Amino acid sequence: MVVNEEVAQFGMGAMAVGSSAMDLPADKQLQHIKARTNLQETAFFYPNLYTDEAGNISFEFDSPEALTKWKLLLFAHDQHLASASGTYFTQTQKQLMLRPNIPRYFRTNDQLTIKAQIQNLSKERIEGNTKIELIDPRNNQVVSTAFQIDSVLKNFSVEPSNNSTVEWSLKIPAEYPTIQIRIVAAGGEFSDGEIVEIPVLPNKILIGDTEKIVLKAGESKNFTVKGSTKDNLMGRIQVQSNPILEILSALDYLKNYPYECNEQLSSKWFGLKMAQYIQLHYPAVAAYFKKLNVDVTKGRLEENSGLNEFKMEEMPWLRDIQGDAEQLKKIATFFGTDIQAEINAVEQKYEIINPQMVPFHGLMGRAQY
To answer: Could you say which of 201, 234, 269 is where a domain stops?
Structure first.
């Protein structure tokens, strides 16, 4: 079986600029250049193979427009299990190549300089012009002026088998979520260009601002939400008829969190200490939950502590959709445990993990409620 080496010989020829375009001004001439857009790193194609009378195999495909070096791996076999393989390298290039150095994303209010390298592979000196355009992909409008570019049009001169660079300074505005950057260059009878679309990330931090509204039965009040000077994303009203139940459920969540790092041990210790504080200063609350009828029979998931921790870790949303009755059962189980014994166990684990630090009870036992 013969593998024809010509199968690996693919590339891009020079894009010529016609004489009619050369007679136009530099700005108009650059508008007629077709910029490269398919800059993928992998050339995908279906193996439609063609054989000739000698058994040579050939195939055709469209390569991406990236100007780079390509590696082609071939493996073939016939019905008699005879096989052959080959590795070939080729390079897509042009006599005049433009290689912009563009970041992966912009951030609002950034001030930066975009550089582009111009390579001359010909045997003659090339003089010409380059141009940058920033395009809003939502309506294909050129919005270069919004980016405060010093001059979109630049001149260049490149010696044979050499390169030079051009650069533009710009400032990123806030009103464009994505932007297309089109950079083209033309000199003599050669031209090249690229179009890249990149996201513009906001230079902001999302902050949730909450306001407590307390109403009694049958009461009506007017509240003013101060948001006129902010860039508001969304608003939400959450009604909680029993806020104490939510607070106690949060303590139960802290106490039963599955991990045992320093942070989570501190959270467990805080939840248990708060429950102990409620027992000492509000015994009626603790007594009420202890008297609740907690089902003795448990499912297999609850009996298996490992699976129960997995449920809490991987499906925390289950706690959000449980009704008040289910939350009461969990709080009753929480207050029905030996809280002091669990506090001692947490403090011992902390001292084992951190033997060189101040004892846990000595460090945090003086906390004020």
So the answer is: 201
Tell whether the torsion through CA atoms of 228, 230, 231 and 233 is positive or negative. Answer: negative
Q: How many domains, the chain?
A: 3
Please indicate, yes or no, whether residues 184 and 127 belong to a single structural domain of this protein. yes
Q: For 82-91, 181-190, 279-288, which range has the lowest pLDDT when averaged over its residues?
A: 279-288
* 232 within domain boundaries: no
According to DSSP, residue 265 is labeled H
Domain annotation covers residue 369: no
Same domain? 197 vs 147: yes
Is 74's pLDDT higher than 60? yes
pLDDT (tens digit per residue) in 213-231: 888 878 888 877 777 777 7
Measured CA to CA, the distance from residue 330 to residue 294 in angstroms comes to 9
Q: Which two tokens stand for residue 242?
A: 């029993």
Burial 62-77 (b: 16+ CB within 10 A, else e): eebbbbeebeeebeee
Let me know: does 223 contact 134? Beta carbons within 8 Å.
Answer: no
Q: Which domain holds residue 65?
A: 5-91
Question: Looking at residue 6, what DSSP letter applies?
Answer: G
Task: Give the pLDDT band of residue 366 (cuts 50, 70, 90).
Answer: very low
In a domain, 251, yes or no: yes
Listed in sequence order, the residues at least 6 apart from 287 whose beta carbon sits closer than 8 Å to its beta carbon are none
In a domain, 208, yes or no: no
